[in-house]
Design a protein that fits this description.
With 290 residues, the protein is of the alpha/beta class. The chain has 9 helices and 7 strands. It has a 7-stranded mixed β-sheet, with helices on both faces. The radius of gyration is 22 Å and the shape is globular.
């Protein structure tokens, strides 16, 4: 059995998230993702009576989903993240609910910190009733490309080499393959990029601390960041990623995952080789009708 690589220091992530909550976290990105998730869900003509909000330190999503006739259960890995509604404490990267017990599983900006995402997605699929829906938004690999590039160049210049500063989150193609591997029917993966502007790189870094979203890579450097390197990174950021008014841009890539627990009523792809006309014949027909 292959051992899951430990990419993220999950205990460190939890400590930073708890500190951010206690100090008043910056939740603008989470609010945008929750709003979009609720909008996507509202387009689905179904009633979801038993819902699970998976992971994350904030009850914002569970609160947004609350409505008469719907039971929303929050599942997270620390009592500090409970909120006011129903809550289950879960060991890291587990979903301790009965199989086929939920109509809906949702997650907002939590799954990017999971080391064994294939395993957790499989648990989500098992937790869903047949024809139940999974919908999640998580940070994608293109996020904070500006910050990543600025630190890489600054450290190469000032210290002769770069250490990882921004996490290698999943991209659309990889995440789509994981959805299929987990057994979801009709999986869809898409993304959107949210751009936030700051007076300087330091404003972005302050917001990341207030989100509890600073570097938690296991392979991160333990050496204190030199002030000269930090200042050089800020200079590079301003030189390469500023607008005409002098403010700098920060990109947040949000990847959306959706998929259904298999059910016999769902549309099935046509069997391979079942087409009544070859592609060549179809193109000839098209040309004749032009």
């Amino acid at each position: 059995m292959t051992e899951t690589p430990e990419i993220f220091d999950r205990a460190l992530v939890r400590r930073r998230q708890k500190r951010a909550l206690s100090q008043g976290s910056a939740d603008f990105l989470l609010a945008a993702v929750v709003e979009e998730l609720v909008a996507r869900l509202s387009a689905v003509q179904r009633e979801f009576r038993a819902a699970i909000d998976l992971g994350g330190p904030s009850p914002m999503l569970a609160q947004a989903l609350a409505q008469p006739g719907r039971d929303v259960l929050r599942v997270s890995n620390d009592p500090a993240f409970a909120g006011a509604g129903r809550f289950i404490l879960a060991e890291d990267e587990t979903l301790p609910v009965a199989p086929a017990s939920a109509d809906l599983v949702v997650s907002a900006l939590a799954l990017q910190w999971v080391n064994d995402l294939p395993g957790l997605l499989t648990q989500v699929r098992r937790a869903l009733k047949p024809d139940g829906l999974f919908l999640a938004g998580l940070v994608g690999n293109a996020s904070l490309a500006e910050l990543r590039a600025s630190f890489m160049v600054a450290e190469a210049e000032m210290e002769g080499g770069a250490s990882p500063r921004v996490a290698p989150f999943g991209d659309v193609r990889e995440l789509g393959a994981l959805m299929q591997r987990a057994g979801f029917a009709l999986p869809v993966v898409d993304f959107e990029t949210l751009t936030v502007r700051y007076d300087s790189m330091f404003g972005l870094m302050a917001d990341l601390r207030a989100m509890g979203a600073t570097n938690a890579l296991v392979a991160r450097s333990r050496k204190p960041l030199r002030r000269a390197t930090l200042m050089r990174a800020a200079e590079i950021y301003a030189e390469r990623f500023s607008d005409p008014d002098g403010r700098v841009r920060a990109s947040f890539d949000v990847v959306w995952l959706s998929g259904w627990a298999p059910h016999e009523s769902q549309q099935k792809p046509a069997a391979r080789g079942s087409a009544q006309m070859s592609l060549e014949e179809a193109l000839k027909t098209k040309r004749k009708g032009d």
